UniProtKB/TrEMBL annotation, chain A:
PANTHER family: LEUCINE-SPECIFIC-BINDING PROTEIN, PERIPLASMIC BINDING PROTEIN OF ABC TRANSPORTER FOR NATURAL AMINO ACIDS. It comes from the Bacteria. Belongs to the leucine-binding protein family. SUPFAM superfamilies: Periplasmic binding protein-like I. Keywords: Signal. Residues 1-23 form the signal peptide. Coiled coil: none annotated. It holds the Pfam family Peripla_BP_6. Residues 34-353 form the Leucine-binding protein domain. This is Branched chain amino acid ABC transporter substrate-binding protein. It comes from Kitasatospora indigofera.
Automatic annotation (TrEMBL), chain B:
Belongs to the binding-protein-dependent transport system permease family. LivHM subfamily. Pfam families: BPD_transp_2. It is found in: Cell membrane. Its main location: membrane. This is Branched-chain amino acid ABC transporter permease. The chain crosses the membrane at residues 6-27, 34-51, 57-80, 130-154, 184-204, 216-244, 256-273. Keywords: Amino-acid transport, Cell membrane, Membrane, Transmembrane, Transmembrane helix, Transport. The keyword Magnesium does not apply. It is a multi-pass membrane protein. GO terms for biological process: amino acid transport. GO terms for molecular function: transmembrane transporter activity.
UniProtKB/TrEMBL annotation, chain C:
This is Branched-chain amino acid ABC transporter permease. The lineage of its organism: Bacteria, Bacillati, Actinomycetota, Actinomycetes, Kitasatosporales. It is a multi-pass membrane protein. One of its GO terms (cellular component) is plasma membrane. The keyword Translocase does not apply. It is found in: Cell membrane. It comes from Kitasatospora indigofera. Coiled coil: none annotated.
Length: 415, 286, 314
């Protein structure tokens, strides 16, 4: 057995070596019009609501891009994405995948969702540009390393919408915040809620937290409800806040619940069970604009195509995932190289919004896609409609220099 | 404050149901049954699957409890029985079984949490400043009823007397003609039933997942040590003490370290009494 | 007598040196998935060599080894962030973890069997809570990056060297009075105590030594991996380490190596889909416990003895 394991190790090693030798861009092989890049996604584990949808969208994006291909230094190319599952544990599984992709396979660009900080030491050893298609945590992941890019606005661009909307439309004067402790996205949200509550003149009457992975939120919920707030804000992602929402409703809370998790109807049904429609009543979600509620024709068309092909509700991240191949192609064209991470990295900062993309980005000054490595997206507040058992846009807005601008309210969100 | 104490009572009832199953098995067979967490998980999934297939809740709950009993008895028949003469091997076997059971659940249902619906999900009682959600009242009722039934079984029936005899002195009981093997199976059967009860009592407040019982199991082991390995009465008392202690610690010190307060208690006990709070033989399994 | 003892040492230490050199070759040659497997196998072997004193020779079911492994990894990462030189950070991390081991030992070395397993398991559960929740130091549930204190070449050299030196130290220590006393604890603890063996103190020393091995392995693992997270040091990991020693053959020199390779190979190499490899591992472990209590090495040793006797008698 021991020798067999050693043999397996040797075999794996020789495969690794041979892929290195025959990798893209080396030698006059006939394959070098096909360019391979990487994507590390959460296909399984706690965040498995994210990865499969991202992969679906990327598959569509690659197919669309390859219909015409893209030109680099006068030659036509097609794109291929090598996928890896980080098992929702970037520090253990994701970082291994990154080493494999950048050191063994020599892939020049990697897309990823979670775990920015954990990839930094490996990026120091072997720098490549990494494009984040998901993580809007505050403070921004972009502060971690100069090789990271973010295809969407940070939480700070949409959290203020929650407070602004509920104050104007529901007359909310006080709010209680319940946080998932140790979950960076949720902790960032709580900081932002406190900031924007102050700006809006809404009082934060209670803050409580529960440890990530705990099973009983009784104490945190009691603290929040006992303060008699007008609304409760739940800080964290879908999979974490929905069980809290359930216990919050079980404890007798009937007021509005706010969050920035991007819950969609499929997830609500799966996680909350049969009573999801009752439990989701009076829910307000402030986050990035969704494909289904977007007014952008290209985005709406993508949402329709996605739904038809995969029979599931497209999450916000599907647009950014779909656009990843187009960003890569534009950067490689700009760089004049399909293999050099340094040139591609530099090119990413110089490209404008690529044709064919569906995210509906707002152009940065100078018509650039990325400024300071970040792209700009609009935000919206959605509300749950019990009659149709789905979500609808209640307000869209943009955020500039710490203030909400371009607010547009839906006349009657639930129709 | 009163709400915190009530939360402690809920926790205590949950710990009691789990810990009594552990201590019963320990009393009769001297096995630290780490695999009990896996039994609870599979019972919870069985309930969920039955409910998902359209069975009414009561039926699904019975299916879950039955599943707990069957799995628990299987662990005894297929594994524990063969190490009864080798106490050093039993922690290893228990942990091996835990791996198998948890990963069976992971394989069968995936890692994502499932929600278990009950008819009393939205029921709510209010007594002054204290709120009592229906699911937690159900938890207390289930715990009290099942433990009362166990008490009657142990004290009033010949089966119970035989089990107590085995727990007190295995060899003597064997000489007096008590069928030892049947007692082992019976202990695991009762533990499995209690595991099933624990699963349906507490899964509705959280999600059903392969690792849902890990924390509860650790706390239940603290209870077993506090109450004296093998003592049912000790386990119930210990469970209530630990439940209140964890709830107080969680409310007033840090909710993140809730189960660490149990560890602190465990350390204090083991420093003072390295071989645990061993109850007198007469009170074991009673 | 000295001649045969030299021969005995040479017979053990020769293969140890060879394994050490092989480890270095593999660490340099492999990257990506295979590299990770090699890294885990080497660092686990170092950590498990420590566990082999407590669980292996003394027969005490310790489920604290992943805590010590994690303690070294996290402490060194934190100290490096405070600007300490790499060697000092590593030394302090090992020292600090051994201190934690001393506390664990003081509390639990007086307990027996089941209580020891429950107590050490709970200790690991609590360290996982700390790794997960003390986010200011540990980075929380998603882990924290590790400052790269040693160049990669040095880390690889240290990993391979520590593997060999660790095994050699185990071989030599097992032959001393300390080793004999640990064996006495395994055979019959009450009798040993009666005969004047300070059993509690012997167990205490073994636990502290195991903490040292675990912590040093953690330091090196963190340096190579560049990031540490709670999921790498949970009680499931502790348990898999415990399984590895059991499968390898408790108390035998190469048990940590054989056990690590088998456990890691089964969980990482063979892809049956989620969970299945662990189910297989659980079943294999129970089977080994029931059928071959001396592990794979015990079975191989018995086979070798039988062949040799046959050869001699023939």
């Amino acid at each position: 057995m021991r020798s067999r394991t050693a043999a397996a190790l040797l075999a794996a090693g020789s495969i690794a070596l041979s892929t290195t030798a025959c990798g893209p861009g080396s030698g006059p092989g006939g394959d070098d019009t096909k360019v391979k890049v990487g994507a590390i996604l959460s296909m399984s584990g706690v965040y498995s609501t994210l990865g499969p949808a991202e992969k679906n969208a990327m598959t569509m994006g690659v197919e669309e891009l390859n219909r015409t291909g893209f030109t680099v230094a006068g030659r036509k190319h097609t794109l291929e994405i090598g996928y890896a599952d980080d098992k929702s544990d970037p520090a253990t599984t994701g970082v291994v995948a990154l080493r494999d992709m950048t050191q063994s396979q020599k892939l020049p660009v990697i897309a990823y969702g979670l775990g920015s900080a954990t990839y930094v030491p490996q990026l120091r050893r072997k720098p490549v540009p990494m494009i984040n298609i998901l993580d809007s945590s505050y403070p921004s992941v972009l502060a971690q390393d100069p090789h990271l890019y973010l295809t969407r606005g940070g939480s700070d661009t949409y959290v203020p919408g929650c407070l602004s909307y509920t104050k104007q439309k529901l007359g909310t004067k006080s709010i209680a915040v319940i946080t998932a402790k140790g979950e960076p996205y949720g902790e960032g949200l709580t900081q932002l809620v406190q900031k924007s509550a102050q700006a809006e003149g809404v009082k934060v009457v209670a803050t409580s937290d529960y440890p990530l992975g705990s099973t009983d939120y009784g104490n945190a919920i009691n603290t929040a409800v006992a303060a008699k707030p007008d609304a409760v804000y739940l800080s964290s992602v879908t999979g974490v806040i929905l069980p809290v929402l359930k216990q919050l409703r079980q404890s007798g809370w009937t007021g509005p619940v706010l969050h920035s998790s991007g819950v969609n109807p499929d997830q609500a049904r799966a996680i909350l069970g049969n009573q999801f429609n009752t439990l989701m009543k009076d829910n307000y979600d402030c986050a990035g604009t969704l494909p289904t509620t977007s007014a952008h024709p290209a985005t709406a068309a993508f949402a329709k195509a996605y739904q038809e092909r995969w029979h599931e509700y497209p999450q916000d991240l599907t647009m950014w995932a779909y656009d990843y191949p187009f960003i890569v192609a534009a950067a490689m064209t700009e760089a004049g190289s399909t293999t050099d991470p340094v040139k591609i990295d530099r090119a990413l900062g110089a490209i404008s919004i690529p044709k064919g993309t569906v995210s509906g980005w707002l152009p940065n000054p100078g018509d650039l896609l990325f400024t300071d490595h970040g792209a700009r997206t609009t935000s919206e507040v959605t509300t749950w409609c019990p009659a149709t058992q789905t979500i609808a846009s209640a307000m869209t807005f943009d955020h500039r220099d710490g203030a909400i601008v371009d607010q547009v309210f839906a006349k009657d969100a639930c129709g | 404050m009163s709400q915190v104490l009530v939360n402690g009572l809920f926790l205590g009832c949950l710990f009691a149901v789990v810990a009594v199953g552990l201590t019963l098995v320990y009393g009769v067979m001297e096995v630290p049954n780490f695999a009990h967490a896996g039994v609870i998980v599979l019972a919870a999934y069985a309930t969920w699957a039955a409910g998902d297939a359209g069975a009414p809740f009561a039926l699904a709950a019975l299916a879950g409890i039955a599943c707990g009993a069957v799995v628990s008895v299987l662990t005894e028949v297929l594994a524990y029985r063969w190490v009864v003469d080798k106490p050093a091997a039993s922690p290893a076997v228990a942990l091996g079984l835990l791996l198998i059971l948890q990963n069976t659940a992971l394989r069968g249902y995936g890692g994502a949490g499932r929600s278990l619906d009950t008819p009393y999900d939205t029921v709510l009682f209010r007594i002054g400043p204290v709120t009592l959600p229906g699911v937690k009242v159900a938890l207390v009722l289930l715990a009290v009823l099942s433990l009362a039934a166990l008490h009657l079984l142990l004290s009033r029936t010949s089966l119970g007397r035989a089990m107590r005899a085995v727990a007190q002195d295995r060899e003597a009981a064997a000489m007096l003609g008590v069928p030892i093997r049947r007692q082992y199976t019976l202990a695991f059967l009762i533990a499995g039933l209690l595991g099933g009860v624990a699963a349906i009592a507490y899964a509705p407040t959280f999600q059903v997942s392969p690792y849902m019982a890990d924390d509860v199991l650790l706390s239940a082991f603290v209870v077993v040590v506090l109450g004296g390995l093998g003592s049912v009465r000790g386990a119930v008392t210990g469970a209530l003490v630990l439940g209140v202690a964890e709830s107080l610690g969680s409310a007033y010190v840090s909710s993140a370290y809730q189960s660490a307060f149990g560890f602190l208690l465990l350390v204090l006990v083991l420093v003072r009494w390295p071989s645990g709070l061993r109850s007198t033989d007469a009170r074991r399994v009673a | 007598m000295p001649a045969s003892s030299t021969a005995r040492h040479a017979a053990a230490l020769g293969p140890v040196a060879a394994v050490s050199v092989l480890a270095h070759v593999l660490l340099i040659g492999f990257q990506g998935e295979a590299g990770q497997l090699t890294l885990l196998a080497v660092s686990w072997t170092i950590a498990l060599t420590g566990l082999n004193f407590v669980q292996g020779i003394a027969g005490y079911p310790s489920l604290a080894q992943a805590s010590f492994f994690g303690g070294g990894a996290y402490l060194s990462a934190i100290l490096l962030d405070h600007g300490l030189p790499a060697a000092l950070a590593a030394a302090l991390a090992v020292g600090g973890t051994m201190l934690a081991g001393l506390v664990v030992g003081l509390v639990f070395s007086r307990t027996r069997g089941q209580y020891f397993a429950i107590g050490t398991m709970f200790f690991t559960a609590v360290t996982t809570l700390v790794f997960t929740n003390a986010a200011d130091w540990t980075g929380g549930p998603d882990g924290r990056p590790v400052g790269l204190g040693f160049p990669l070449d040095t880390t690889l050299l240290l990993l391979a060297g520590s593997l060999g030196l660790g095994l050699a130290a185990f071989h030599l220590l097992a032959g001393t009075r300390f080793g004999a006393r640990l064996r006495a604890v395994r055979e019959d603890e009450d009798l040993a105590q009666h005969l004047g063996v300070p059993t509690a103190r012997v167990k205490l020393v073994a636990i502290v030594v195991s903490a040292g091995f675990g912590a040093w392995a953690g330091v090196l693992f963190a340096q190579y991996n560049g990031v540490v997270a709670p999921s790498q040091f949970t009680f499931v990991q502790s348990f898999l380490m415990f399984v590895a020693i059991g499968i390898g053959g408790a108390g035998r020199l190469f048990a940590p190596l054989v056990g690590s390779v088998l456990v890691l190979g089964l969980t990482q190499l063979v892809n049956f889909g989620p969970g299945v490899s662990q189910i297989v591992l659980g079943a294999v472990f129970i089977a080994v416990t029931l059928v071959a209590p001396h592990g794979v090495l015990g079975v191989l040793g018995a086979l070798w003895d039988r062949i040799r006797t046959k050869a001699v008698t023939a």
